[in-house]
Amino acid sequence: MPIPSSNRYATFDGAPPPIFRQGASALSKLIFFCALAAFLMVADVRFEVAKPMRSVLATMLYPIQWLALQPSAGVQFVARYFQSLDAAQSDAQSAHRKLAAQMQRAAVAEQLQIENHRLRQLLDLRQRPETTGVTAEVIYDAADLYSRKIVISKGSSHGIVSGSPVLDELGVVGQVTRTHLLTSEVTLLIDREQAIPVLNTRTGARSVAYGDPLSFGGTLELRFMAANADVLHGDLLTTSGIDGVYPAGLPVAKIDKIERRADSAFAKIHCTPIAKISGASHVMVVTPVAHLPSPSSPPHPPPSESTSATIRGTQS
Amino acid sequence: MSAIMPRGTRQLLLPASPGFIWLSILFALLANFVENFYFGGSVAWLPDFLALTLVFWNIHQPRRIGMGVAFFFGLIMDVHQTTLLGQHALCYSLLSFMAITVHRRVLWFKTLTQAVHLLPLFVAAHLVELSLHLLFGHAWPSWHLLLAPVLESLLWPFASFLLLMPQHRSPDPDANRPL
User: Model's pTM, two decimal places?
Assistant: First the structure.
């Protein structure tokens, strides 16, 4: 009987391992890869070198992520299919009611906008730029225990730039921090390293709200507010518009808890975000104010003057 | 005879097919993604299927799946989890190094004992990741994190059973090939 030529049932797969030429030792490989990882980490924090690499990997990864999303999408589809007709009808009704209310507000807002425009012209104030937005779907919550980010389904190929504010139907959700070709990473307001300039709509006082992911399942914190500052439970905070990123007047958070302690000159103020931070399914990405062409501004306004004009504009 | 079939196995294993190795790693990556999509970043104790699979192949096929593969898949996890590029890569390379260091010894034991041997490896990998995060100024996540390596080593016997299944097939013996 001839001996089969295929090596399929041999004890060793392929050629036997070499005895002498074994390549680099495991320890030297470890040192090489550790050094490479350390370099990448530093490069990711300090330089732009790692950015194209991350973008390429993210684009490569997109089909696999899409595949991994299909089971949950299927479950959702089936659940939605079997949802009762009553629930669907009541949903539609409430949406209609909301829409009617919004229509009324939109009409008023349009009228106000025209009025505002003319008043601003009268006062010779700089025009506030109009923002444009791109809607996107939230693909997933990034599974990092140490930061609060989401990944959305629009990227640099859809014209999204890093730094853009991200909103949902209720208020500000966060800010785009990295863009890839087809996806973008959005850092949520409650992330530890995220800050947003806000304005207390009751008093007009400006401050900065910092993310606080650990307390009460994710809140915002107003730091360095004097212990006797005029802040009340339930005050609405909106974007102040002086940072050149967020358009003015977007709802951000409501003051929730105020702790005034005798041993500290500052009050500890916690606010709850207004937007559905962790449950948003669709978001809108708005072009940052600084990237917008300034409409019909007076020729060459000095920067300091323009800033003060914007501040006055916000308070007026 | 004992030279060819040591490792406490009763049966001589077939050679591992490279296609199956890569498919299993890809599947582990998918499992990690699905796990992340369902739980987001809120649960600290989730086991890392990709790390488990990489360790498995590092131990069983160190000539095919080495540190380079582990490093590359670490980068992929970094991009997916939007963490600092290189964090998972460093942990996976370290895990791979430790796995390759112990691979000759570990395979002499039964799978349950192997799991006990591998627990320190998984603990070390998670501690390195945690210390990197603390080094970069992130807050302490939660004590549940220490449950993840335990779960990973508890999953080891199942992983061994599943991933060795294709190699356990009968090698159709005949008169000339009694094995």
Answer: 0.76
